[in-house]
Amino acid sequence: MNAITAQPTHRSVIIIGGGQAGLSISWHLTQRGIDHLVFEKQRVGHAWRAQRWDTFCLVTPNWQCKLPGFPYAGNDPDGFMKKDDIVGYIEEYVASFGPPVREGVAVTRLGRRAGGGFEVDTSAGSFTADQVVVAVGGYHTPKMPRSAERLPRDLTQIHSIDYRNPEQLPPGDVLVVGTGQSGCQIAEDLHLAGRRVHVCVGSAPRVARRYRGRDVVDWLDALGHYTLPVHEHPMKEKVRGKANHYVTGRDGGRDIDLRKFALEGMQLYGRLSDVLGETITLEPNLKRNLDNADNSSNNIKDMIDRYIASAGIDAPEEGRAPPVWEPDGERETLDLRAAGITSIVWSIGFASDYRWIECPIFDGKGYPGHTRGVTEEAGLYFLGLPWLYTWGSGRFVGVGDDAAFLAERIDTLRGGATGIRVVEMALAE
Ligand SMILES: Cc1cc2nc3c(=O)[nH]c(=O)nc-3n(C[C@H](O)[C@H](O)[C@H](O)COP(=O)(O)OP(=O)(O)OC[C@H]3O[C@@H](n4cnc5c(N)ncnc54)[C@H](O)[C@@H]3O)c2cc1C
User: Fold this and answer.
1) For ligand 1, which residues put their CB under 6 angstroms from it?
2) How is 358-372 classified by DSSP, letter by letter?
3) For the chain, which ranges sit under pLDDT 50?
């Protein structure tokens, strides 16, 4: 019997995932004295350690790092932590309260247990729990189109999750497909390193880094944007599938304007539509996508202007600069070999994969039905998903509030909040 199976296999609560979400709920349960266990298949904070590129830094300012009981305490609240500092923040968080984490243990199946509670099968044996929090993040399976299989075999293809630095890619031009946060920042990373970069521009919006004397995040915070619940958002639940606005925290923070990169030699195209051997076909929407990204940035600025005017804030005026570059037409095809492209970085996002959860809570697309993380299966919760409840739910700034909400629900279901404890389902070892 190894060290793990020698320990009791039943817990009041099992938390699946040891990222910031799993650690946040663990902190709240610890405060409430609720026995629990966190299973993390890698190491705590794995995504920040192993799934980000070398020059990665936060897009959100450090002051938004508000893990429960452990707000950012450094001397640069308006700065943007680099990858190692983020990992350090997570490690210090763990050291601050000593959560009961089993690292290197993957949950392989979660199902209902006859008689109540849940069965949690793991790579280290089977466990049971009265309640379970699924905190496995929102980015499970890197998306690569099947058409990519038709590309020449000597072309290097990686997903953004595996991108580390320009040197990892063979000499030659690089094609970045997708312009969400990752695609734009990876294109910038390659461009700044002197690589010739080609980018298939998608429909992601952009946002300015600063406006009228403050970081736009500060303005949006003052506007209440980060605490707006999903059901009050104009797009309602559909906002969960929307691409993030692109901007960067690199070198103290700045805009990402693809038009400026185009002036410096970056090759921009519309969205990739298909692969025909060495040639890719392109949608004629480069101009529209660039214009829409600028419009989204300007709309946010308009909103800030209205707020400044209505609140009577004394903020410096700031004009709107016209676009610094316009495409001179829409290209329909690109011959990769002729363009000198030797590698592709697919930056088109992730699909979720909850096939290991055997509870009837998912919609037709495999998304779990929930209200602020509480599912219809009593005792089963989700935490850390993008827009689980607010913009910040899938980020450092909001996960703590959602964790506090779930901890209260968990305690209530146990009888903690009413003083009536649910009879512990002690399992025969
Ligand atoms: C490129 C990128 C940039 C981002 N930038 C920012 C930013 O600037 N600011 C910000 O606030 N947020 C940012 N985010 C969003 C968010 O903060 C991160 O995605 C963060 O990692 C989410 O934390 P989490 O705990 O919800 O999920 P994760 O960090 O993904 O943690 C989930 C954990 O669960 C584990 N796990 C998964 N399946 C199992 C299983 N079956 N059994 C056991 N363990 C399992 C994983 O190993 C992982 O450690 C960014 C996200 C990405 C992808």
Assistant:
1) 16-22, 39-42, 46-48, 58-60, 106-107, 135-137, 139, 181-182, 384, 394-397
2) ESS-B-TTSPBP-BT
3) 1-5, 418-429
